[in-house]
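Sample intake sheet
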Amino acid sequence: MKLLLILLAVVCGTHSLSSQIIDDFADNDLTVNPEWYGDISDFSTNELGQLQLHATSAGSSAIFLPIPFTGDNLTYSLDCFLDFSPSDNNVLTLFVELDTTDLTIANGYAIQLGQSGNQDPLEFIQLINGEITVLGSGEHQYTDNPAFRLQVHHIGNQWTISSDSLPFDQRFTTELQTTAPLLPNQANYFGIMCSFTSTRTDKFRFDNLAITHANLYDSAPTIVGVEISAPDELIAEFSEILDQQSAENPQNYKIMPAVAQVIQATLLADPTLVQLTLNEDLPAGEYTIIVEGIKDQSGHDTISQLRFANTGATQLNPYDVVINEIFDDPTPSIGLPDAEYLELLVRKDGLNLSQLELTIGSKSVNLPDLALREGDYIALYDLNDREKFTEIENSIGVIDLPTLVNSGNQLQLTRSDGLLIHTIAYDDNWYRDRRKADGGWSLEQINPDYSCAIAENWTASVSLAGGTPGYKNATYDPQGEISNFQIQNIVPLDSITIRVSTNRSLLQTLQSDQFSISGGPQVQSVITGGGNHTEIILVLTQPLLRGNSYKLSISGISDCHGNPLEETTHEILIPEPAMAGDIVINEVLFDPYPGGEDFVELYNRSSKALLLSSLRLTNTENSTSVQIKAPILVSPGNYVVVTPDPSDLRRRYPVDHPERLIESDLPALPNEGGNITLFVTRNSRTEIIDAFDYSSDLHYSLLKETEGVSLERISPEAATQTSENWHSAAASRGFATPGEVNSQFYFQMNTSQQWQLNPRTFSPDGDGFDDYLLINYSDLKPGVIVHIKIFDAAGRLIRYLVNNQTVGTHGFFQWDGATDAGKKAPIGIYTLYIQSFNDSGEVELIKENCVVAARLN
């Protein structure tokens, strides 16, 4: 636990130096806490919170960490994941106790993995003026994607190198023990060096670095932090575990100036923390706490003091302050200041703005001193823009406020001890209006009580000025519809890692016993991640096996406001590569209502689980191409809808399964017509999965207005490029069915007849029930040419439906009830003359009757 409000530490008595370095790499920043040097741009944090190599080409990348410890009693520990088989061209080298980062003249030691041939043990090497000498080799062979926890212990001239394999249960095996002469210079650096070929530029991963000096308690304890937990209560943090008797003696604590006295001291469950109860409330101001006579468990006695400040602010907890409005693109201005701002909403009394640190992207800034009240709206702007905000009452300038990225960014509010208060990762699609996304309008949160709801709780401002800095949002709606908390998708990232995606931000620390897999391995560890904290990463004890059936049960999970998720069970599907025809274009909206968005619905007609993020969409007529960004699985027989704004579809059309609506860009889809091609890239080759040349001419010919009306596929089994396989969505279903079974869906039945009408009685009224006549054919000989004419009861030709068209062995034609004159056929009986002949001269004439019906009012 790290504590707040420390201004200056003054330590008296025996000097104590920090005795441990820990880096779990979760902050994705190698420049601070701790600060690394070297090729840091070649490394970044992946979605598992691991440090991963991301080099641009073959070579070597090395990073180094200064070691502040003196002495030689040190232990190093690091988790290593190599997604390849080590070789003499792909080598991992871990440096310990180097005296310089210049490897050509360095003195120190290293553990190296990677040799020629099939033998790949750990090697312990020594560097003297850059020259390498192998001091010993381990017994274990590291081949085929090794994952291991390495531990190196050095005391005097004795070295012990041990390793632990997954699931990292601290069952270390000694690799080698040896002696080595002491080096001439004091050790200064730990280092990681990856040497790699062009195919291994991202195959090195690391986690959980710990460098520990063994003499943790060789000095007296010191007070290192103070938190004001209540007006009459402090929490004091010490540098090490305390002796309970001395720690709980209130006479050992004094506060200067003496405006309050410690009347009770209680050692907490964390034995480095002491709760101090005062005889009265502590007024705002600066203080010094003096501790004397407090011992550690080794009996070391201390005199220590620490200056701290009471700003008068109460304890800041998650969501007490939330990001409420974002103005990232002020040009062109329509009434707002021509400068960026970020608005905060205060949801608790007694806070101070200085309790917060704001991070935009990778840059952080401390916020200025300002007393806050519940319900305050505070617009933050860069101090250099103060003249532009003179008319905005509830605003304050911030020195060096980081720039907001127009296309989106990660925003975080944290407490001074690192506790996350609020975070969002916004993007342009949240505007739901491309015109407003181009600049001059702010993004507003709709309902602050649903801050966990992410994108669906944000939209473009409707204020005439373009935004509402310092005031209640123009889009505020406490009754707005928000989706229920639910699991959206479960995707195995690899054989031992599963990602669970939700539609709400998560805040709680999750435990492995909240997840269980029937018929499979146990969950070893749980990580909450994603830009909006909507993802859960599960690391398993054993690999999932392809072909096996697994079910994941989830219980006890709540969103960031404490709303629980009902206990639920989901099938775990292992993704397989999509091949041509596995997933097809099933519905398209290319001419949306004004202000609306296009969508493309896909249907998985295969028996495989398919990973959506492996697919791309393009319009081959204008060469625009986009990757479907959502890393979700589409299960067999399921639908998924790709659209820039799922919330727009939910407002305009009946949507029973909002989890099937996926936010992603689309290629440009002109209203008059174009192409949609679904494809994958494998081994630098493009493989087309499905393609559709759409046109407004495919709409129901008697439909007067097609704006906002989708084209629906009639049968997923029939050819995509057959015009008869598409029809306008039914009016009774709202003119579109995103994520649902199409209103015009037809299940083609097996039949022994070569020609069959279905249904023989149809009503072309757009109600979604028997809106068209299908003329099915099957088992025809190759190369057959077809004519179909339709006559009314008086024998008059009203529609020449098919004229001299070559057909395949099976398929269907569609009659929507329109005549050649472009009018709707009257109610009555009609006769179809179907003439077919092949290249052998065989001619067949079939006569079938049908009925055009209508509702009787």
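Comment: The domain at 504-572 is CATH 2.60.40.1220 (Immunoglobulin-like). Residues 94 and 192 are 5 Å apart (CA to CA).
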